[in-house]
Each structure stands twice: as C-alpha cells, then as structure tokens.
C-alpha cells in the first residue's frame, strides 16, 4: 500500500495545551508520526513517498480566505502584540452570534478557534499545509487508479471547520481530499467515514448542505465527550444535504463487538449511497486507555479489532484514501495503524 508522508510536521511542536482547564504537555506530538513510521517499516508497508505541492487552490475550496491568512500570519503578530511566545492559545473567545470579526492579534485567535487545544507556533501553518498536500497526493493517486492509499497527516484535520481550528486541527485534510476527488472526476461522489473517537465536527460542517459528499461518523456521544456541541444522531444534514449526514454516537466504554455492529450500520449507509470514492478519517483514540479520550469517557477497543475494522471497510470495495486523524496511546499507535491497513488490504 502506498504511504504518503513528510517531515514538515516537525515544524509544528507546541509545548502544551489547556486540557479541561489544566495546562499540560500536548498529547498531539511529532513522536506519533515517528512511531507510526517505525511500525510501517517493521511491517514492510510501503513504499513511503513524499507529497507534492498542490498550491493554495484546493485548500481555498474548503477553507475561508480570512481564516487561511490568519493561520499563516498570527504567530508573529501575536508575539509582537505581547502574546506568549510558547504558543497562540486564545484568551478571549468569540461567541459568534453576539460579536463581529476581530483582527487584533490578541483577539483574532478567539474568533478563529473553538477550544484551547489547538496551539499555534511559528511552523504550524507550514506543517498544516504539508499535511493537506499529503492528503491531496493520496487523492491524486486514487484518481490515477490506486485502490488504497494511506495519508500520514499531522496535524490532524477533522475538527477544523471552514474558518475554525480546534482539537489539534487547523486544515481539514480529509475534507480537502474529498473535495479534490469530486472536482477532478466528472460526476463523482464521495463518502467520508470518520472512525476517530471524537465527532468530526469540522467535516460535518463543511459538507452539511451537500448531497455529493456523505459524512458518516462513529464516535463517543457528545453527551459526555468532546467536542460536546455537535455529533448527535438528529444532525442529518440540511437543504440539499438533508439525509447526507449520519452520526452514530455510542456510549462510553464500548468494546469490539458493539463497535463492529455500529461499523456495519455505517457501512450499509455508505453502500446505499454508492459513492465513487471513500475517504476514511482514521483516528485510533478508540483504543482502550487512550489518554485523551480518558478512561471514563472513551472506548475500550483492543488491538485485535483494527484489522477487523479494516476488513469490514474493505468489503465496500471502494477506492479508499485513509487519512490519519487522532490516536494518543503512543505505545500502541503504530501497531494499531498497521493492523487497520493490513485489514484493508485483505
Ligand atoms: C484529532 C483529535 O483526536 N482531537 C481531539 C482533541 C480533544 N481535545 C479535548 C479532549 C477533552 C477530553 N476530556 C476528557 C478527559 C478525560 N480525562
Ligand atoms: Zn480524536
């Protein structure tokens, strides 16, 4: 299986995040990619190829121009304005229905960010653009006839909305790839299946009124888990997109068997939609004991289930782009990724 990866992610290395009110060392680290690459090499999965640069246009197809300028320029402006040089983390949050946009460097982060878990440093924009190029390079390979490609994206993307960052995400790699696929294959449709433990609120927002992209997400219920404000079953899409958004929120502590039942429900919806392409937002924070999902509020999947998940998805028999999202149980992350990819290839 072709793997797309680059070292540019190393430029995004913030020291900390505010997690539920505590300033803690950030869980979304460069070591995640190193662990995954080492496991891929041990399992002889490859070749591992570098992305090419697609320029800004496929990113602009998904994200707002003001937001992109913000991401590119805020770190320097923030520091000049007296913000902490460790990382941009908003101190004032815009409640959008009662505010207007603000460009002051100490205020703009609060306009373009929805939580305190997406710190920006000097290299964040370059890393996020490289991750988008990784997803786009994978999409291009699918258009050329490849059946399954793994885009080793970091930072992840599924929480990023059209003009919002949050949850370690800045550019929505999966959405950018899906949009590129349908724009470059006449009449094509795409399904996005999101198996990160957190709801893909950004991806949902981007395609909510669209019927050419079906978004299906299996995740910890927003009743008790981040991102809390979205991910309920009654969010079914709007306008032309009504019926093209499917959320399958699950209870805390879900194990392999219940998870695979939900997966089969998701796969039936995708099979009914019969898309030309599948983009898989692949998070591994469903793993038992993932430190971000938390012991009380996460899932309890074991390592053995990831090959099974891969096999169930492969039964759709669709050209598939696997986009790396979350997963913070670092000692198991590489093997879990390898398991999913090996299952997909069977
Ligand atoms: C891509 C991705 O997986 N982003 C996740 C970002 C989650 N950030 C906030 C999580 C807060 C969870 N709080 C649960 C506490 C358990 N100790
Ligand atoms: Zn996640």
Please describe the biggest sheet, giving its number of strands, its sense, and whether it closes into a barrel. 8 strands, parallel
Q: Determine the fraction of residues in helical runs and give it as a percent range.
A: 25-40%
Q: What topology, given as strand order, has the largest sheet?
A: 4-1-5-10-9-6-7-8
SSE series: EEEHEHHHHEHEHEEHEHEH
Describe the global form. globular
Radius of gyration using CA atoms only: 18 Å
Q: What oligomeric state is this?
A: single chain
Q: Gap between N and C termini, in Å? A: 11 Å
Average pLDDT rating:
97
Bound molecules: N-[3-({4-[(3-aminopropyl)amino]butyl}amino)propyl]acetamide, zinc ion
Q: Which stretches of 5+ consecutive residues score pLDDT under 50? A: none
Category by helix and strand content: alpha/beta
- Counted beta strands: 10
Q: Beta fraction of the residues?
A: 5-15%
What do you see in this structure?
With 346 residues, the protein is α/β, with parallel strands linked by helices. 34% of the residues lie in helices and 14% in strands. It contains ten helices and ten strands. It has helices at residues 31-42, 57-60, 65-80, 108-112, 124-143, 173-183, 201-207, 256-273, 305-314, 330-345; strands spanning 2-4, 16-19, 22-25, 48-49, 148-151, 190-194, 213-220, 245-250, 277-282, 320-324. Strands 4-1-5-10-9-6-7-8 form an eight-stranded parallel β-sheet, with helices on both faces. Strand 9 (277-282), helix 9 (305-314) and strand 10 form a beta-alpha-beta unit. Helix 8 (256-273) packs parallel to helix 9. The longest helix is centred in the middle third of the chain and has 20 residues, at 124-143. The protein is globular. The model has no long low-confidence stretch (mean pLDDT 97). Bound molecules: N-[3-({4-[(3-aminopropyl)amino]butyl}amino)propyl]acetamide and zinc ion. The site of zinc ion (ZN) has 6 residues, from loops. Residues 196-198, 283, 285, 326 line the site of zinc ion.
């Amino acid at each position: 299986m072709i793997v797309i990866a680059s070292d540019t992610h190393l430029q995004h290395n913030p020291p900390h995040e505010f997690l539920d009110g505590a300033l803690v060392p950030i869980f979304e680290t460069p070591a995640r990619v190193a662990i995954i690459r080492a496991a891929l090499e041990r399992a002889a999965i490859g070749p591992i190829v570098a992305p090419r640069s697609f320029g800004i246009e496929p990113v602009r197809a998904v994200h707002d121009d003001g937001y992109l300028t913000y991401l590119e320029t805020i770190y320097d402006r923030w520091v000049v304005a007296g913000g902490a040089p460790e990382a941009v983390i908003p101190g004032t949050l815009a409640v959008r229905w009662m505010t207007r946009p603000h460009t002051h460097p100490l205020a703009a982060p609060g306009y373009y960010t929805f939580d305190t878990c997406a710190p920006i440093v000097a290299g964040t924009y370059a890393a996020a653009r490289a991750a988008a190029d990784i997803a786009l390079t994978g999409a291009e390979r699918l258009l050329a006839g490849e059946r399954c490609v793994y885009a080793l994206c970091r930072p992840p993307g599924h929480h990023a909305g059209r003009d919002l960052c949050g949850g370690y995400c800045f550019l929505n790699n999966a959405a950018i790839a899906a949009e590129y696929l349908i724009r470059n294959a006449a009449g094509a449709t795409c399904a996005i299946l999101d198996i990160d433990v957190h709801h893909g609120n950004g991806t949902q927002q981007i395609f909510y009124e669209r019927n050419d992209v079906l978004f299906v997400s299996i995740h910890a219920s927003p009743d008790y888990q981040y991102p809390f404000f979205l991910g309920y079953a009654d969010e079914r899409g709007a306008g032309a997109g009504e019926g093209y958004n499917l959320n399958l929120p699950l209870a805390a502590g879900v194990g392999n068997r219940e998870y695979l039942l939900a997966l089969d429900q998701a796969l039936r919806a995708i099979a009914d939609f019969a898309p030309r392409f599948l983009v898989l937002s692949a998070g591994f924070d469903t793993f038992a004991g993932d430190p971000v999902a938390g012991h009380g509020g996460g899932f309890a999947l074991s390592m053995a289930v990831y090959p099974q998940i891969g096999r169930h998805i492969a039964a759709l028999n669709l050209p598939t782009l696997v986009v790396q999202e979350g997963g913070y149980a670092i000692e198991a992350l590489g093997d879990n990724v390898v398991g999913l990819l090996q299952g997909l290839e069977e």
